[in-house]
Specification:
The chain is mostly helical and about 130 residues long. The chain has a domain at about 5-90. The chain is built from six helices and no strands. It has helices at about 5-20, 20-25, 35-50, 60-70, 90-95, 110-120. α1 crosses α2 and α3 (about 35-50) packs across α4.
Length: about 130
């Protein structure tokens, strides 16, 4: 059964293959698989972490590694511990304080004279044509 991460990578690559015919050919390689692609991504992330237990990587970089895995024939996938955690940006994590709605002043009603002026200014005349 595929993991959510594997499904996300597969969906991106499927979409990319529809738009990019050159990549579509690389994506068909029999010696490549989504599972191995994800292992390659994990190994690249481990290298980037340089021994740390965690590392933050943007989507574009992860998708770039996935495409690179399919483009290159001589990639050897290192055995790594597979664990992916998706963390929302700090701005999203903090609860939003509810603000009281700003009450607007009630709009002043226009007088009959003001409404008449507006009407007259919009009215067309046969003599203006």
């Amino acid at each position: 059964m595929a993991t959510q991460f594997e499904n996300t990578i597969k969906n991106y690559l499927d979409s990319r293959a529809k738009e990019d015919s050159l990549f579509a050919e690389a994506y068909k390689k029999a010696n490549k698989s989504i599972k191995e692609c994800c292992k390659y991504i994990y190994s690249q992330a481990r290298k980037l972490a340089k021994g740390s237990n965690s590392v933050g990587i943007d989507d574009a970089t992860v998708y770039g590694w996935a495409v690179h895995y399919y483009d290159e024939d001589d990639i050897k996938v290192d055995k790594v511990q597979e664990r992916v955690e998706v963390v929302a940006p700090v701005a999203i994590q903090k609860p939003v304080k509810e603000e009281k709605p700003v009450q607007q002043k009630a709009a002043r009603k226009k007088t009959k004279q003001e409404l008449q002026k507006i009407f007259e200014s919009r009215q067309l005349s046969l003599f203006d044509m």
